[in-house]
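tool_call: predict_structure(chain=1)
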Amino acid sequence: MRPNVWTRTLVSVSAIVGLAAGSLATAGTSFAAQDTKPAVSSEVSVLAVNNLGLTTAEAKKVQGWLKQYWGYTGAIDGQLGTNSWKAFQRCLKQYWGYTGAIDGIVGTNTIKALQRLLKAHWGYTGAIDGIAGSGTKAAFKRFANGI
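tool_result:
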């Protein structure tokens, strides 16, 4: 009978040690989890610069044109950001059927109006679909180099 008592005692002690170790491990991970930050954010941000395939030099030409004719007051830095696109949207609103807000966001309506401009004068032959594909980007380059 004696070996049976030792076996039960050993099993009981092992179980208690195991539970204690498991509790400590869980407590350690729960404390660690409180101090961590998520690796991926669920926030979405609007792209700050959208050159639609233009080089910095080409974008500077566009910004110079926007400054001269459409009230652009930012730096001529070759980065078509929100203020560059707000100025461009003013042009597109006046002449090319843009009906959206002057918000500087290069969305579908901005691209459609840009495509109308490019179709009329800069060799764009694609659909007015609001997608800045290779044809739109090529015509936008012609525009930038021709102004």
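agent: The helical segments are 2-35, 56-69, 82-95, 108-121, 134-146. Proceeding to next step.
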